């Protein structure tokens, strides 16, 4: 088992050549701005504020590296789908993320975080289709489950499963607020790391 408590911030990376040595497997976290990515990572590592959360979307501009138990890296990717930055800034982020997701050898899995309350967004689908084409391991996580009744959770999750054409065993239902699905997520991630 991975001791997710043993976590520390490593670096904010703005360019491919600044990436750390690829000596540990890493798990990257992707999702639309404000979907709850930082909150998910904080819950995963049992820290309140390791990763800054914000009600203002679009803050994270770099790949933020966290080291866990000298075993793996967690990588918080910049949120996508946020229009308030200039076109050129947007494009330079996209270049970095695209290079990272295509080239990084030590990337064991991409966790794609999706809001359980809403229909699948075009950008989520594009990312997932593209990662699949790349042959990347990916794990969809449906978050903010606490905002829906149990009934609605089941209904919305089934709709997202259908949109992504996956079985319920291929994703995790999650809440950063209540911790729902967190143990399952830890187990899944440990599996990717062990099989890397
Ligand atoms: N109720 C609830 N709120 C959440 C959850 N995850 C994130 N949030 C809230 O959603 C907002 C954006 O979260 P944040 O983690 O900063 O999103 P990020 O931009 O994807 O990193 C914040 O106000 C969080 O408190 C969740 O599972 N449940
Ligand atoms: Mg964030």
The hetero compounds bound to this protein are: guanosine-5'-diphosphate, magnesium ion
* CATH architecture label name: 3-Layer(aba) Sandwich
What do we call the CATH topology? Rossmann fold
The strand order across the widest sheet is: 1-3-4-2-5-6-7
The N- and C-terminal alpha carbons lie at a distance of 14 Å
Based on CA atoms alone, the radius of gyration comes out at 16 Å
- Determine the fraction of residues in helical runs and give it as a percent range: 25-40%
**Main sheet overview:** 7 strands, mixed
Following the backbone from N to C, one meets helices and strands in this order, namely: EEHEEHEHEHEH
In words, what does this structure look like?
The chain is α/β, with parallel strands linked by helices. It has 5 helices and 7 strands, in the order ββαββαβαβαβα. It has helices at residues 37-44, 87-103, 122-133, 150-164, 182-194; strands at 7-13, 26-31, 63-68, 72-76, 107-115, 138-143, 172-173. Strand 6 (138-143), helix 4 (150-164) and strand 7 form a beta-alpha-beta unit. The protein is globular. The mean pLDDT is 90. It binds guanosine-5'-diphosphate and magnesium ion. Magnesium ion (MG) is lined by residues 37-38, 60.
């Amino acid at each position: 088992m991975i001791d997710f408590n043993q976590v520390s911030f490593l670096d904010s990376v703005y360019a491919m050549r600044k990436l750390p040595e690829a000596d540990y497997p890493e798990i990257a976290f992707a999702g639309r701005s404000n979907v709850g990515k930082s909150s998910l990572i904080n819950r995963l590592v049992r820290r309140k504020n390791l990763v800054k959360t914000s009600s203002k979307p679009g803050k994270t501009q770099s790949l933020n590296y966290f080291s866990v138990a000298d075993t793996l890296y967690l990588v918080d990717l910049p949120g996508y789908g946020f229009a308030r930055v200039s076109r050129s800034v947007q494009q330079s982020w996209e270049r970095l993320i695209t290079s990272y997701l295509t080239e990084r050898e030590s990337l064991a899995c991409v966790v794609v975080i999706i809001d359980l309350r809403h229909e699948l967004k075009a950008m989520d689908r594009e990312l997932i289709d593209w990662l699949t084409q790349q042959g990347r391991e990916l794990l969809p996580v449906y978050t903010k489950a606490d905002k829906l009744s149990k009934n609605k959770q089941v209904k919305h999750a089934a709709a997202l499963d259908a949109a992504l054409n996956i079985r319920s065993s291929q994703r995790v239902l999650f809440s950063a607020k209540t911790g729902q699905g967190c143990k399952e997520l830890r187990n899944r991630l440990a599996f990717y790391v062990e099989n890397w």
